[in-house]
Amino acid sequence: MIETANIKITRTQQSRLSEVDFDNLPFGAVFSDHMLVAHYRNKQWEQASIKPYGNISLSPATSMIHYGQSIFEGMKAFRNSNGEVMIFRPEMNWERINKSAERMCMPTIPREIFMDGIRQLIDLDRNWVPTNEGSSLYIRPFLFGTDPMLGVRPSDTYTFMIITSPVGPYYSKPLHLKIETEFTRAALGGVGFAKAAGNYGAAMFPAKKAQEQGIDQLIWTDAKEHKYLEEAGTMNMMVVLDNTLLTPPLKSTILPGVTRDSFLTLAREAGYQVEERPISTDEVIEGARNGKLQELFGVGTAATTAQVIRLTFGEETFELPAIEGREISNKIGKKLLDIKKGEITDDHGWNIRF
Ligand SMILES: *Cc1c(COP(=O)(O)O)cnc(C)c1O
């Protein structure tokens, strides 16, 4: 068992930083100079290393490719005007990747490798953390099975990696979402709560069908009756109905978002009425008709606070209230972002700074 991460660092000979156009960053297509790699073999984690970003070599029989033992995380680093880097609640991501790991029969990742790994990697690539408004350094830790073996069973060997990518906004404009009532993202007892690779592959076909009709993303509903809202793309959903902030309760079909938890905490502290309870499509659609639906938005690390301006349900499409007038999402969304960027005091001690 490794107690403190003794990470071997090999620096790049030639930084690619000067080639990056920080004013035109796509999401997730540019990668910083270094990456972290740690291997799990013989039932233990070996010394982690940080090395120049580059391709990896795998057997064509690598179990992850065939049977999907692959999980990931997503977080963002911000840099303030003093050059300090901030990362928001990374401990929650560490706990969550280990819950995903348990569900997928994968080894858990020691705290030291995850936390020190992120810190040392980002410290080395500090200048890759953008300072432009709306930009950040997206951090992608991931773990996958590497046995070169076609039997269907949990792999004995694994690789954990962290790569980072300077990114601009995930969504550049308010969204048109559709409430999905045919296809299913996750069923009770399944792996919806895990950030498991296969969940995202399975969601692409229904999302693509919707995109062909000009819709940006889907709001998934429960697998059994397609009557209750679950989440959307890589965001948890929030609704303001009749002055109450609502979000579906956590269960095995819903990814427990760090943004969701933080948003609910700040909204409660600001004195808003907040309820975690099942939200039926009927009450949302009725609210869209009679004006009680005041706000609809998604929350997630990548998407931050993503406003929904248009909602399709069956054959009908509703125009939702103007974004400027949305009190809770605007106020709490800004507060959350200001905390992440280190621009206001972080009363909860959520950020790590270095
Ligand atoms: C990552 C993710 C979220 C948001 O989680 P955060 O921790 O807030 O980034 C929500 N839903 C799904 C399906 C996700 O993959």
Number of E-state strands? 19
User: What is the overall silhouette?
Assistant: globular
| Helical segment count | 7
Measured on Cα atoms, how large is the radius of gyration? Answer: 21 Å
Low-confidence stretches: none
Roughly how much helix do the residues carry, as a percent range? 10-25%
Mean pLDDT across the residues is 96
In the CATH hierarchy, what is the architecture of the largest domain at level 2? Alpha-Beta Barrel
CATH class of the largest domain: Alpha Beta
CATH-defined topology of the largest domain: D-amino Acid Aminotransferase, Chain A, domain 2
Ligand inventory: pyridoxal-5'-phosphate
Structural class: alpha+beta
Give me some keywords for this one.
six-stranded mixed beta barrel; ten-stranded mixed beta sheet; 7 helices; binds pyridoxal-5'-phosphate; D-amino Acid Aminotransferase, Chain A, domain 2; alpha+beta; D-amino Acid Aminotransferase, Chain A, domain 1; 354 residues; 24% helix; globular
